[in-house]
Amino acid sequence: MKILFYGDSITDMGRNREIEHPAFKYGVGYPNLIASELLFNCPNQYEIVNRGISGNRIVDLYARIKADVWNHSPDVLSILIGINDIWHELGAQNGVDIERWEKVYRMLIEDTKARLPDLKIIICEPFVLEGEATSGQGKMEEFLEVKKYAEIAKKIAEDYGAYFVELQDKFDEAAAKYGAENYLYDGVHPAPAGAKLIATEWLKVFNEKIK
User: Fold this and answer.
1) Domain segments of the chain: what residues?
2) What is the number of helices (H) and of strands (E) in the chain?
3) At 66, is the secondary structure helix, strand, or coil?
4) Under DSSP, is residue 6 helix (H, G, I), strand (E, B) or coil?
5) DSSP class of residue 72?
6) Pick from 5, 3, 8, 57: nearest CA to 189
7) Model pTM?
8) pLDDT tens digits, 54-97
9) CB burial class (10 A; 0-12, 13-18, 19+) of residue 108?
10) What is the Cα 141 distance to its own chain's centre?
11) How many CA atoms lie within 13 A of 190 on its CB side?
């Protein structure tokens, strides 16, 4: 079974593009933790591919879908995207508004299902916490718009028979108990505990629905 992770820096997490070796190609984020779990238990059953690219928005995922997804013919495609579509608007007026985000996300799913009809798709909920990157000058209120994007992601999963990994509530609960910085070190990017949280919730869905 080939599993491909697709997204932005949260998925990328420093993966090495030059060395196709398991010690380097997964990065240090949640794909690495998921690969560790699956390959520890069944080393000959899974092939894991990380195609996260830092800074990506939904339009970037759509632009590279053939090279980085279709050409790999995965059995399972896992997508986590959304925060940069807001963040890039705040920093450079180059974000993706929610109506366009939904339109492009649906195109991505529809075109991919047409190309790979047996593909199983996992859509991960985008998330945010208060932190260095998200707080100050009223930015947190704007970053919280990601929750509206998350609602659309969940609806897309429902409409296309994809599996949905809920994450925002889990991060909120963990942050309230132990502090946001222990999970998303800047409010966006996962610390080790945050990566573990994502991997844990992802594996629950995978083991219950797909494996």
Assistant:
1) 2-210
2) 10, 5
3) helix
4) strand
5) G
6) 8
7) 0.97
8) 999 999 999 999 999 999 999 999 999 999 999 999 989 999 99
9) buried
10) 22
11) 29
The 3-state DSSP composition of the chain as helix, strand, coil percent (nearest 5) reads 50, 15, 35
Q: How far is CA 60 from CA 29, 56, 101, in A?
A: 20, 5, 11
CB of 202 closer than 8 Å to CB of 165: yes
The C-alpha atoms of residue 141 and residue 64 are separated, in whole angstroms, by 31
- Topology, domain 2-210: Rossmann fold (3.40.50)
The residue to which tokens 């919730």 are assigned: 201
Taking only the tens of pLDDT, the chain with its 211 residues reads: 999 999 999 999 999 888 777 778 999 999 999 999 999 999 999 999 999 999 999 999 999 999 999 999 999 999 999 999 999 999 899 999 999 999 999 999 999 999 999 999 999 999 999 999 999 767 899 999 999 999 999 999 999 999 999 999 999 999 999 999 999 999 999 999 999 999 999 999 999 999 8
Rounded Cα distance, 174 and 183, in Å? 8
Q: Which two tokens stand for residue 34?
A: 């998921």
**Cβ-proximal residues to 176 (8 Å cutoff; 6+ apart), any chain:** none
